[in-house]
Amino acid sequence: MSYIGQAALKNSEIKRFDVTSSTSATHTLGWPPVNEQSIIVTINGIKQQEDAYTIAGSVLTLTDALVAADKLEVIGIIDVGVITIVGDNTVSTAKLGNSSVTEAKLSTSGTAVAGNYLDGTMAWSEVVGGAVTTEGDYFYNYNTISSNLTTTVETTKAAFVAGPITIADTFTWTIVGELTMI
User: Fold this and answer.
1) What is the tally of structural domains in the chain?
2) pTM over cut 0.90
3) pLDDT-based confidence at residue 70 (cuts at 50, 70, 90)
């Protein structure tokens, strides 16, 4: 649906700069205008044409210097036609709304359900009995495996389990890969 009318400008999109009692042609604004067309320059209430001044960064240079009785006013409209792109690593946790990070943003595989955790590969994995956990400087594992458990032994990692360990009733513990026992 199209909108007829003008959207209200936010205060952050309008800047103002005033000078009195100056005899200079060069003035530093508090912001860098996008271009000459994004500002309105008046001297003693008379709008100046775009060929009466130039902009370089945040410096406004008039073609003629002011006299002490002149009043210079510059109104700047910023962000007009400019898309603001947030820089990498600049959004803090405080800027995120509740529930604004969804499962789709976290993972491309698996499903987030109660009892699952997001592992180091950004995939949802089931928390099962017998998992090794950390508490402070100590590692511990459950003495009873109470669900089916598959452990994949990787050649680039080391793992350990302390026993005795009991595998409850009809459950299995499958170890995939080479396991070295000490």
Assistant:
1) 2
2) no
3) very high
Residue that finishes a domain, picked among 57, 77, 97: 77
- Nearest Cα residue to 30 out of 72, 74, 63: 74
Cα–Cα dist 48/44, whole Å: 10
pLDDT for res 165: 81
Q: What are phi and psi of 162, to 5 degrees?
A: -105, 145
Tens-digit pLDDT profile for residues 128-139: 555 555 555 666
Residue at which a domain ends, from 59, 77, 95: 77
Whether 182 maps to a domain, the answer reads no
Segments forming the whole domain that contains residue 117:
111-176
Is 84 inside any structural domain? no
Q: Is the peptide bond before 164 cis (omega within 30 degrees of 0)?
A: yes
DSSP 55-120: EETTEEEESSPPPTT-EEEEEEE-STT----PPTT---GGGSPTT-S-HHHH-SSS---TTEEE-T
Q: What is the mean pLDDT of residues 69-90?
A: 77
Tell me the torsion sign for CA atoms 153, 163, 167, 111.
negative
Q: Degrees (nearest 5) of the Cα angle 176, 179, 181?
A: 150
Query: Using one digit for the tens of pLDDT, what is the confidence trace for 109-120?
Result: 555 565 566 666
